[in-house]
Cation-transporting ATPase
Amino acid sequence: EVFGYQTQKLRRVLFLVTSVLTCGVLPLLFYWKPQWRVWAYCIPCSLQEADTVLLRTTDEFRRYMRKKVICLYLSTLKIPISKNTEEPLVADCHSVINKAVLKPELKFRCIQVQKIRYVWNNLEKKFQKVGLLEDSNSCYDIHHTFGLGLTTEEQEIRRLVCGPNAIEVEIQPIWKLLVKQVLNPFYVFQAFTLTLWLSQGYIEYSVAIIILSVLSIVLSVYDLRQQSVKLHNLVEDHNKVQVKITVKGKGLQELESRLLVPGDVLILPGKLSLPCDAVLIDGSCVVNEGMLTGESIPVTKTPLPHAENTTAWKSHSLEDYRKHVLFCGTEVIQVKPSGQGSVRAVILQTGYNTAKGDLVRSILYPRPLNFKLYNDAFKFIVSLAFLGIMGFFYALGVYMYHGASLQDTMAMALLLLTVAVPPVLPAALTTGIVYAQRRLKKRGIFCISPQRINMCGQINLVCFDKTGTLTEDGLDLWGTVPTVDNCFQEVHSFTSGKALPWGPQCAAMASCHSLILLDGTIQGDPLDLKMFEGTAWIIEDCNADYCELGISDSNVIIKPGPKASQSPVEAIIVLRQFPFSSSLQRMSVVAQLAGEDHFHVYMKGAPEMLARFCRPETVPKNFPKELRNYTVQGFRVIALAHKVLKMEKLSEVQSLTREHVESELTFLGLLIMENRLKKETKPVLKELSEARIRTVMITGDNLQTAITVAKNSEMIPRGSQVILVEANEPEEFAPASVTWQLVENQENGPGKNDTHINIGNSSVPVEEKGSCYHFAMSGKSYQVILQHFNSLLPKILVNGTIFARMSPGQKSSLVEEFQKLNYYVGMCGDGANDCGALKMAHAGISLSEQEASVASPFTSKTTNIECVPHLIKEGRAALVSSFGVFKYLTMYGIIQFIGTSLLYWQLQLFGNYQYLMQDVAITLMVCLTMSATHAYPKLAPYRPSGQLLSPPLLLSVVLNTCFNCIVLVCAFLLLKQQPWYCEVYRYSKCFLDSQSNFSTNVMSLSRNRTGNGALVPGSVLSFESTTLWPITTINCITTAFIFSKGKPFRKPIYTNYIFSFLLASALGLTIFLQFSDFQDIYRGMEFVPTVTSWRVSVLVAALTQFCVAFFVEDAILQNRALWLWIKKEFGIYSKSQYRIWQRKLAKDPTWPPTNRTDYSGDGRNGFYINQGFESSEQIPKEKLNLGGQTTEQHFWTRL
């Protein structure tokens, strides 16, 4: 959201004066809240007149940013520019530049937001992104408007408006990083606290905290600086690439890549690291997109077709437009000219608008995490601050009542204010994450977003990719099933060792792939590689013999190898390639057999997809049954097809469209490939299932194969029912429909492999309802349900387990839909076509050899799914540790607050060394080691609480506060009843004369006392402080022990050796100090001697409190069974959306539906509509009421 403002000079002067008067407090507040600064010295106005804009994010965080509007003038360019309003500045009629530049002034207004430049569109009255070609350009526009290059004048205009083609990451100066860290609100509060403590002479702990804070700031600054330098070095080379472009009317020109602009024509000479995003218009090339996907598999790019229509070029290619686009940061490893000169591409996007720029921006400006823990932590700190404020007013009242000086009163009141909020809180909260990150690193799991580790502790649903994640990466050839005369023939088994006989099927397997010969080795997709190896043919470079035939040296030549079967064909030349894409699920090539003058088309792809492009009479009648026979056994099945092209000229082949090539084909048969489960898959899925973590499969493979893999891996347990959900788009006379089919498996014993799938009239037994049924659907059905049956989607997702033939976009969408149901989603994939889903999930884990992948927050070097339970265990341990540390620090603040408040009643204070013992020897050490306890090796069947403001945790803090309060108040009051008790400060002269060598503060105390025995502010020596100190100290130690719960999420406390040793040492030291009668200790600790029986009573009181607190915490507050019983008795249920749906569906006798079809307009089965895709005007009012969508849902669906 954008708001316009105009600066007022008078307001600015007032702001400067107020800033000086408040000693810099006002500018500090404005630094934290930039919107206040704008509201203070600007007045609202329209965006057209604004010199300052305020941006507000539309997410739940509603963050503000202030940006200055910059005016730039084209008159600064040393070229003649027409000031005629009728003449466009650039030839591209779609360009925003023509609408942004005002004539005759030749000026334009712009703002820079997160490295992207936006210019003011004077016609549409909005800020619009520049640095890219508009998507509204058609294929015709790109070829004809930009095909010959831009003129020099247009290049200069675009350079000024769009900015340089550079991804520049500024190395932040150390002073700037330091200022940012120091001005953090908590550090400012810490500085105030430390200043106060130092002024009161509490030097030792203040110095310890200063050292810790300085270390923390220095480490943070060093870390940020290193990241900044690394990122800078990573992208710096990108800005210095020398490239060749075509300039209109001038020919070729060589220049530095930072001078490129959208619309330039880039010449691809050979190997090149792409400095921008470009669309290929002439020739083809092979690129390595490892930087984007994490998979270093060569990808073939084809030129944008010469279409005459006015359809936007991306829409023309549908989801498959990426096959024409060369992305910034990827490597061109081979170019294939089309015979009309060099390989050319039109630049689409420059700078931070590119794919690489987008990745760098995602690192520079990560998406903020909305994790309830962090929101609750802030609320907790605020409530502690309120407690401190109450203490402030209590201290004011007490000291003013006793007539203390204003200076003493304010000092003591502020001191009590700072006691409630522990200054080590930020450091303590991050230690758990640091320890977890270190342990994950040892297991080969790397993390680029440490805050997400705590989120991993809440994961209750994990989505898995299939190929390369659950199953082995490589596929093994099992056999081929050829067809002759519309009938399947006998299987040719590859395990028999016989060579594949020559025929169209062999030719298809040898030629229909995207493999390339690079430095003498064949490279490409593992599936293609395995298929090609099965033919025993070889790839060769084009030599002189073939060049004479008019074949380009960029064409692939395939020849029979020494182990290949006898072939009448000497070689196959691949002339044209239509690459494979996940969305199209197919690929095809145009090839020529050596010695022939006509051409052949070979095609491979998903069997269901490929059968549509074949002549029906060539597809065997038992095709569905035969396909199912193999897919239910878990085989990966690929279909092959072929046709002869009726053309003789090579030039005609280059102008062929994919639609023409992929039609009227002859079905050749099936290629069967075996995809084995990884040995780790089954035990990991079993472990997750026992921990009640849902597992879901999202794959691009066949639905039946996915179902079989799910059953073999026991993702779908034995005896569970599978319901196929098949949805169809609305047709001319039929509305959209959903069919529910129950799959019945009759396993015929170990000797028989075939599984029959009967769609009968059986239904799921009522007593087996719940988790005994699983929905399975394809990407096509998912898309239809998303659009036309939106109200059904949550019902399906609650029990949806298999999602097959899913495109990358659908994978991301599915993860998002699961998140809407309040699931904490983990996604595990190989990082190739899962990038979007990995980023969308709460915890995305990429299985990659690289240390850190930009594709996901977590990267596992071990390429199997064992990393998933490890990550969840560490996440749970880190989350429980964070809660434990938070509870401990809260209690530590409250214990000190109660003790200090009781002493304030008599205008007394704990001694410096008394505070120091609690603060450094206990709290500081505890906070740094408490989180070091390792994760429990077994996953519990439930998650730790994800809320700080949950009843058990709040009760824990409240009850412990009550126990402390009772013990401390009782000790305070009972002390006064003792016969030996006296108010030391009242009889200080007598006491000091008899105990003169007991105190180091004799002189200061003598100076402070008054002749009439009045109360003395800041007195330390007293029976009260000597009694309360051991109780508060032991309470701090025992509280740390109580809150360090081990099982079920962490190992027992004794396994954390350092922490256990520190607690035992602190307890021993406290008891020693309490019972020792050494005068040096009494002098140093500022104690007053008491009788031994009283000391024993104090110790017994503290230990009794520990026993009560431990029993309450362990037997009541941490008793899961008790809380579940309370919830059941009071009818308290989870408010998570998926839980609400589970309860609703459990009571619905008609769910799950089986063997029926629902229509989008069928009132009997429920009128399912998605108001995001249908206009309300088209829906009758009485039907609209049945939609069950609230206005808010409607709005978000549309969004």
